[in-house]
Amino acid sequence: MIEPEPDAAVTIFGDRIDLARAFTEALAEHGEERGLIGPLEVPRLWSRHILNCAVAAPLFSGRVGDVGSGAGLPGLVLAIARPDVEWVLIEPMERRVAWLEEQASNLGLDNVEVVRARAEDWAWGRSLDAVTARAVSALRTLIPLTAPLVREGGELVLLKGAGAANEITAAEKQIRRFTLSDVHVEVIGEGLLEEPTRVVRATVN
What we know:
- The protein has about 200 residues and is an alpha/beta fold.
- It has one domain: 3-Layer(aba) Sandwich (Rossmann fold).
- It has helices at about 10-15, 15-30, 45-55, 75-80, 95-105, 140-145, 165-170, 170-175; strands spanning about 65, 85-90, 110-115, 130-135, 150-160, 180-190, 195-205.
- It has a 7-stranded mixed sheet with strand order 3-2-1-4-5-7-6, sandwiched between helices.
- Helix 5 (about 95-105) links the parallel strand 2 and strand 3 (about 110-115).
- Helix 2 (about 15-30) runs antiparallel to helix 4 (about 75-80) and helix 3 packs across helix 4 (about 75-80).
- The longest helix has 14 residues, at about 15-30.
- It starts with 7 loop residues before the first helix and ends with a strand.
- The mean pLDDT is about 95.
């Protein structure tokens, strides 16, 4: 059983709430059978996944890549919440690409492009204004995958867990190598979500 929709959902999505509901229902119905989410995730889909992603929506602008988009967390959720932003969902696995394309079409998200590729095979150079990722890998591994996709002066906006600050410390070598600046953790959604979202932000120089 999917959990009841939290009150915060309407606050976060506004007039896009019906699209958020449709995506959440589709993920609850098909996510496990298609290998997108684990069996324990459906009962906490709204709070742990959908709203955890959506609350970060105000941080983005321009053309944004989501590396390892998978089930569309955060890419599809953010595309629902921010129709004014162009989203490029980067995913290597064919079955997940099929899901992303289906959902973008079913939801009428004309601000979504799905690219089947690994981040390290990205062929368009430093062309994105920002890159995000969620539940992909540790920051020290993620920086070399994401920073080369971002234009000078653009941003990494990476959704992380409670150990985000420790990940920054462990990634000092990669932060220097890719000349990142203003690397810090932001906590978003306090007082709105039961468990706020932690985001590692950094400027790519």
